[in-house]
Every structure is written in C-alpha cells, then in structure tokens.
Design goal:
Helix content is 36%, strand content 0%. The protein has helices spanning 32-44, 50-56, 73-83. It starts with 31 loop residues before the first helix and ends with a helix.
Length: 87
C-alpha cells in the first residue's frame, strides 16, 4: 500500500496549491467548510485553545469524546449551522 494516498484514492492530505508568484494559496481558509471544521475542533475541546486544553486536561479529546457545553457533536452542529448558514 502506498505511503501517501492522493485524493483520487480517497484519502490523504490535499495537494498544496500555489499562486503564480510562487506563494501558497490560502484562499481555502475563507470557505464555509474550513470555518466549520475549525469551529468543530475548538468546540470539541470545550472552547479552549490547544495550550489551555493541555493545561486543563493534559491531552486531546479521544475519538468522539466531547468536552463542549453541548451534549454532543450533533447538537453543536445544528446550533452552529443555524448561526452560520452555508452560502
């Protein structure tokens, strides 16, 4: 099995795109999908930054463990999408 999977095989890291001037293209960060992903990560940690989380818990949440004020991911997702509807 190849070490690095590409998107055609359904996994792995997306290919880095570059602008004509040679700099990396960070336009994906303004997409709704990326903002949702970052918000989910922070909500799963209970709204704490990585440093705060490590000080309080000493580790990252495991699997589907949820440290946020909501009951679970589904409850948080419903609330977040109503506050931040997709374009």
């Amino acid at each position: 099995m190849p070490k690095n999977k590409n998107k055609k095989n359904g996994g792995g890291r997306p290919v880095t795109t570059y602008l004509p001037n040679g700099k990396k293209d960070y336009s994906y960060r303004s997409t709704w999908k990326h903002k949702f992903s970052r918000a989910r990560n922070k909500a799963q940690r209970g709204g704490l930054s990585k440093d705060q989380m490590m000080r309080q818990y000493g580790r990252f949440p495991k699997g589907k463990e949820w440290w946020g004020p909501e009951r679970d991911f589904a409850e948080w997702k419903e609330k977040w999408i109503t506050e931040n509807p997709p374009p």
